[in-house]
Fold these 4 entries.
Entry 1:
Amino acid sequence: MKKILTYLAFIVLVTGIGALIGIMNIPGEWYQSLAKPSFNPPNWIFGPVWTTLYVLIGIAGARTWLAEGFSVRIKIWLAQMMLNFLWSPAFFGLHSTGLGLVVILPMLAAIILFIATSWRADRVSALLFLPYLAWVGFATLLNASLFMLN
C-alpha cells in the first residue's frame, strides 16, 4: 500500500503542479505574435503531451525515491523538475525566449544526466525518461528557433 501511495503522490504532485503552472502561464497574445518556425506544433498538442510526460516523470521519481530515498539520482530528478516548472514562467510569464533558453538547456542536461545515472541502477526509470528527453530536445530546438526568429 505504501508503494501505491508513493506512486500516486508523485504522479499527482508532478501533474498537478505542472497543470497549475500551465494555467498560470497561458501563452496568450505575446506568444501568438511571435514569428514561428515551420515545425511549430499546434497549440492543442502541448496539454496531452505534457500530461503524459508528467505521469512518466512521476513514476520514475517514485521508483527512484522508493529504491534510494534522498539519493544523488533523486536530487537530479528534483533539479530537472525545478527547471521544468521554472520554464513556463520564464518563457511565457516573462515573455522571454532568451530566458526560456537559459532554463531549458540545463533542464535538458539534467534529463540526460538522470537517464545516464539511472541506466544501470533502474533501467525502467531511464526508459521512462526517453520520451521526455525527445520532447524537451524538440522543445529546446523550438525555443532556440523562436529566440533567433524574434
Entry 2:
Amino acid sequence: MKALIQRVSQASVSIDGQQVGAIGRGLLVLLGIERDDTAQDVTKLAHKVAGYRVFSDSDDKMNLSVQDIQGGVLVVSQFTLAADTNSGRRPSFSSAAMPDQAEPLYRSFVAALQQLGLTTATGEFGADMAVSLVNDGPVTFMLQTNNKG
C-alpha cells in the first residue's frame, strides 16, 4: 500500500465540475492499493499518515503531525501509484489491486483515519476526478507498507 502525502494549505476534489471533498490545512493523501495489501497494511499506513511529522513547530522544525495541528485529510484513490515503471516507456498495472479488493481497503483506510480522530474528506473511488491543491512548502513524501522499491 502506498500513500503519496502532500502538506497542503487547502485541497479539494471535484467530479464533473462538482466539488465532492475539500479540506483546509492538512494532508492530501493519494492512496495506491496493491494486490498483496491487507487490513494490516491499512492500519499500519493510517497510523503512519496520522502521526507523520511534516508540520512546523514554533522553531520552524518539522515536529508536528496532522493530528497535532488538528488538520484535515483528503484521501483520493489513485491506482497509478501501484504501477511498475521499471521497464519500457509504458507503466504496467499488474500489481494494482482489482477494484473489488481495493475499494473495501480504501474505505477501511478512511475509516481508520477517522477512528484516529482526523477530519477526513474523500473523492469517489474509481471516478475520474480533478484534484486541486496548494502544496505548502512544497512538502511531499511517499509512504508505503511493504519493502518494495
Entry 3:
Amino acid sequence: MYFRKRNEEPLPKEQTEVWECESEDCIGWMRKDFSYEKHQNCPLCGHKMRTGERLLEKVPPPPH
C-alpha cells in the first residue's frame, strides 16, 4: 500500500480568547467561544479559570 500526505494549506491562525486554569499543576484551557458562563471552573481539576489569549487555528465556518 502507498500512503501520501495531502498537500493541504495550513489553516490561518488568530488570537483567540480562552479560559486558562489558575492552578500551577493543571494545563486545562478552553476557547471562550465554546463557553456560556462568565466565570468558569476547570473541568479537569475544579479550580477557577482566568481569561487569556492564545494563537490558535481559525475555526472554519460550518457548511451550509
Entry 4:
Amino acid sequence: MENLSNLDYASYLKGWIRTVPNWPSQGVMFRDITPLLQNPKTFRMLIDIYVHRYMLEEVDLIAGLDARGFIIGSVLAYELNVGFVPIRKKGKLPFTTVAEEYELEYGNATVEIHTDACKAGDRVILIDDLIATGGTMMAGYNLLKKLGANVLEAATIIELPELGGGQLIRDAGLDVFTVCSYDGH
C-alpha cells in the first residue's frame, strides 16, 4: 500500500494531470484533469483538499464555472452541505440571466448566471479547474458581484502564472487558492 503521508499532495495530484500539446490550438499546452478525475483516490484527495479548506468557513454556495468547475463544484457543495450554482456559457440557462463577456487565452466568450442564483450577502466560493488569463474567473466573479454575492475566494486545481490570470484576480481584490501551479510549458 502506498504511503501518502510523506508526499506533497499537490505534487502527487499534479502527476495525474495530463499535458496535451497544441490543443485546442497551436501553442497551447492544455492541462487535462481527466486522469485525475478517473482515479477514485486522486479525485477524493482533490475534493478533500477543498473540503478541509472550507469546512469551517461560513459558506452559502459554491459557484462552478462551465464546464469542469461543475464537476468539482457540485461535489464540493454536496460535501459542505451547501447549494451549487452553475455559471454557464451563453444560451445554456433556461431562466432570466445576466451575462458577462470576457477574453480567453484563445478567443472570446460569454457566461451567464440566473438572476435568482444567489441573493445579496450570500457567501460564495467560485470554482473552476484552471486559471490561465483569468478571463473566465473574472467574468464569474463579476456576475456574482452584480447579484450582490460576497465572493470569499476563487479556487482552482491549476494556475498558469505565466499567463497572469491569478495575479489579475488577486489585483481585483479576490483571494485565489490553487492546488498546483505550472510555470512555463
